[in-house]
Amino acid sequence: MSIKDIPGVFTEQGLKTEDLVVNIGPQHPSTHGVLRLITTLNGEVVKDMVPVIGYLHRSKEKMAESRSYFQYQPTLDRVEYLSSFFDHYVYVSSIERIAKLKVPKRVEYIRMITMELNRITSHLLWFGTFLLDLGATSPLFYAFREREDIFKLFEDLTGARMMYNYYRFGGVNADLPPGWIEKCRRFIRTMPEKIDEYEAIVTKNPIILDRTVGIGRMDIETCLKYGVTGASLRATGIAQDLRKTNPYSCYNEVQFDVPVGKHADVYDRYLVRMAEMRESCKIIEQCLDKIPGGDTQNIRNKQAEIDAAKAAAKERGEDPKSIPDLDPDWLTQGQKINLMTYKPPAGEVFSMCESPRGMLGCYMISDGTPKAYRLKWRGASFSNLSVLPELMIGNLYPDLMAIFGSLDVILPEVDR
Amino acid sequence: MNQPVFDFPDWLPRLLDQGISHFGGSVNWADWAPWLTILWAIIVFTLIAVVAQASVIFMVLMERKVLAWMTQRKGPNRVGPWGTLQTLADGVKLLFKEDIIPKGANKFLFTVAPALFFLPTFVFFGLIPFTNQLVAVALPAGALFVFAISSLSVVGLVLAGWASNNKYSLLGGMRSAAQAISYEIPLVMAVLGVVLFTGSMNIAEIVKAQAGPFWNWYGVLLTPISLVIFFISTLAEVNRVPFDLPEAESELVSGYNTEYSGMKFALFFLAEYAALFAMSAFTVAFFVGGYFSPFGPFITELVTHQPADQLTGLSQLALQVEMLFWFMMKTYFFIFLAMWVRATLPRLKPDQLMGFSWKFLIPLSIINIFVIAIEKYMVLPNGQPVMASLPVLQATTVSSWAIWVVIAAVVFGGFFVLMSRLLSEKLEARLARR
Amino acid sequence: MSEEQKETGKEPATKQDAAVAVAAEPTIPAGEFGKALDAARIPVRHLGLDAGGMEMVDIAPADLLQAGEHLRDKCQLDLLLSCTGVDWKDRLESVYHFYSIKTHKSLAVKVTAENGHSPSLVPIWNGADWHERESYDLIGIHYDGHPNLTRILMPTDWLGHPLRKDYKVDDPRLVWNER
């Protein structure tokens, strides 16, 4: 009688083992939202993974059909709380394209500055939580230190730290406060050395390298088949960035590079995002230098001069209209619109922008009434998440945290 | 060394004599010696239990404060001055919590597991030589006993994971068993070197053999590699980052202690810190000279101009306090080091963990044993052992010390540069290989 | 840039009707992808450009798979951005948006569902999997050939398709808190 004779212990293939079906989530510290992964584990190897989403479905698209265009705007920040400016941008630019609204250049520059600052905050949060998932607790606090500074800037500008509701159709809500440009410039000058500080503890760390190099490789075909965009696609070597390939806003007037990776593993996605933060700093500096009108105090002084000149002309009996008005590119609103009862003409458009997670799209069908007929959000995280089972099956369970963290998935965008 | 296991200091019967003669009696201490040893053991154990508890309570706060300061925060500072009553508040809160036992869990094992995890750690405290007299039990095979007992706490972990009726806990328990087994071996082999040097497994003896200034300590000059191996294995045995896989918060939601609440959770929590304290104390005892002061003579000796073994009464008490002070300073330095490592490093994956232990630490410790054997037993042609005739140990004038300091700086500096060069080459190769 | 008005979506009955219909409405010029599809003899209807300059075409369900393969292989539209379901009051429509990584151009393809059924593009683009499940879940279009057409955002036992215009909110058949 040997060990092989004990019933139930050995099968023809060897020692009998059982697969363990584990539910990761929906309540879990690391799933970046409410996501349920039904995982079948054999020891530490993942044999099957089925994501279940929909826990965060708030029917944003249906809400758009029962609210006017302006009434819907406050909820836009919450479609994806980390890239609220980007969600606002695609929505507002959809309406501007359907209605052919004029957008002054100053507004475009303000939008670019705020969007790039938002990209930095999103990437900082991604950085902190990615390392938190891997077990390093300190970088999160360093990243949040910078986020605090950016939030202070945003609070000066829009009144809110996170849910901004700043863009309007054809313009922005209010002009930059006087002195904001200088504050922003001072902050941006210190940012690259802070990014160096973060990289110092992570980029050459042997533990991080062992956990991320060669893990979660995604070749180009997989990316394209699943519709993966953003840093994950750029890590494969394709320089696909909507700001360069299909420039919107005024991105074709600023100089920046598109960082690409080579091996498309988790480490490359990390490097790409850190490089993107540096590029954002460059863009913001250029925008701050080039913004039409400069500081708001400058514009106010100019306006006061023009008003005084016009009053003087009137007293002299000349036509006040002979004095030229302020440069229309310096305004913060293209044309006067009554926001509450605004009715764009009938039309449809699919407008896109490059959010920190990938290609964010808004498909809007308007039928001439004050409420949208159909509004569809193409969130980048939706497609980025669908590739997760393909990456995980056959890999070790602790790799899940590294791979899932590197995909930068935010669940509210997946579920809307 | 036929030293009795339990021993009591000389002043104990004298002190008791004073008390008893006050009542008009006298005792023949020769007959009552066994009872005295037991009395002394009880006294010291109680003292140590109190000290250990206080240490643990302090350490919980210290960890939170240290981690906070390293991440530019402040840590708890509301409850009590500088947050000192925070742990007390946490303990009281945990006491008041409902004690939940999950349905389907094995009630007996679920309740016994925290105790099984906690008890071996407290047994250690009796073996630590805090000062030359303040050691509860000086076992002749103390070093062996320590590591034999520490394996018992792993049983508690695995039981906790299995008895919780929870897949996450089960995974945590399994991982902890694998980890503990892998890191026991380098742990013991590091201590083996020290035992070779001393010629005894009695921990009090090992400390006494390191008497003198800091270059006599084993971990400074003779086997720094052993110290490093021991420290790393300690972190692994106590389940601290980077080896905290069993309780990996972001993967396993607290691993083996997911289902525990209230006092049972408090037991796990405190036992982990108690184990850290005990292991740091052993690091100090084995490698860093225990209670000896780094300058050589104790401050008390310098003040009273008398050698240590001739001090009596108050000055003896002052000497004991000073020895305790040195011991605690060094222990808390290693605890601080463990917390510093926690704030800095991410977590290792299971295969990385095992690979690091089996493929790197164990071969390194085997080589280390050979080196130690050579150091101890190799003799020069003139019959003198190598280590005793090291020139640095015979330097007397300031200029020769200065030369040796410069040589040491050059050697260590060169070593450091070489290691970092090797490391970055390895990293580049790793990056290029993928 | 013109927007097509509400159309009937019914195929013309005879060739004569077709000719009359074609002669009656103003002809919309074919864009780049429309021309490529015409050259491959896949019947499409050109819908001009949308407000953002993206080309739109309408393809019948029967020709969708063939058109999809042609678009992916010959026109280099390798990225499927999204699949949207739209509930016009008299018909259901799926709108696919494609993007080309190589030429940076995009295309919108509209497919009117016949009896609520439409072929699935999963054999050609895996990414259509989740998007079509969402469209089925919220609008109710059945995608034939989809490997796993189940609800994705709503709970699996939900009744009705929420994004339809005739969807009744607070349906008393669905009582959540008693579950």
Summarize the model shown.
The complex is a heterotrimer of chains A (416), B (434) and C (179). By secondary structure, chain A is α+β, with helices and mostly antiparallel strands.
Descriptive account of the structure:
The complex is a heterotrimer of chains A (about 425), B (about 425) and C (about 180). Helices cover about 45% and strands about 15% of the residues of chain A. Chain A is an alpha+beta fold. Chain A has one domain (about 50-290, about 325-415): Orthogonal Bundle (Cytochrome-c3 Hydrogenase, chain B), CATH 1.10.645. A three-stranded antiparallel β-sheet of chain A has the order 3-4-5. In chain A, strands 8-9-10 form a three-stranded antiparallel β-sheet. Chain B has about 425 residues and is mainly alpha-helical. Chain B has one domain (about 10-350). Chain B contains 15 helices and no strands. Chain C is α/β, with parallel strands linked by helices. Helices cover about 20% and strands about 25% of the residues of chain C. Residues about 1-25 of chain C have low confidence and may be disordered. Chains in contact: A-B, A-C. The interface of A and C includes residues 240, 351 and 361 of A.
**CATH architecture field of chain A:** Orthogonal Bundle
The SS-based structural class of chain A is alpha+beta
Considering residues with a beta carbon less than 8 A from a beta carbon on another chain, report the largest interface and each chain's count: A-B, 38 and 36 residues
Count of discrete alpha- or pi-helical segments spanning 4 or more residues of chain A: 16
Order of helices and strands of chain C: HHEEHEEEEHE
Strand content of chain C: 15-25%
